[in-house]
Amino acid sequence: MLMFSLEDAMKLIDINQAKLSALSDVRPNTIADLMKANTKRIEVETLENLLDALNGIAKSKGINKYFQIQDIFQYYNDLYKDNAVTYSDLINREEFEMIRGILSKAVLNTNVEGLEVTSITKLLVLHRELFINGILTAYDQENTKTENLLLSCERQLKIYFLSERKDEAPPYRRFLLTEKGKEFVRLLRIHGTS
User: Cis (ω within 30 of 0) for the bond into 170?
Assistant: First the structure.
């Protein structure tokens, strides 16, 4: 089974279907079908055009993300779930399920357009690159709305050792995922956010 995630990629760079269609030269109906997982075949040229457009938009908006095919869809098969998904020493299946259950119910009301209500698990998947690279904070620095939203998750993530703050050159600190947090997000992408 293919799991389609084009819509998540579009939300990450804040672009709608019409604009992506215009910039990628891919028909709006094709994009809609990919968003709804309602397609029987995908042309290589279509994938290239979509990835070129997504990466171009990300670069023009200063978003530190390089889109690849797995950001549009991934292959997953329930028959081989145990072989494909290996839990590590960082987080076992029971712990993953428990944390996912709690964080998926942790609903956040936001002032970020397009994400008025969301859960922490959805934010982790949607903004995984930003969480992995870290958000630089300082008392004399103003963060973006999205960064402030992600920073508001710190308390809940820290409880489960999924995030940390690292000191950088004073007065800066970086808020980012721990190795356990990165593993948790990897598993969320495979198993879903709820």
Answer: no
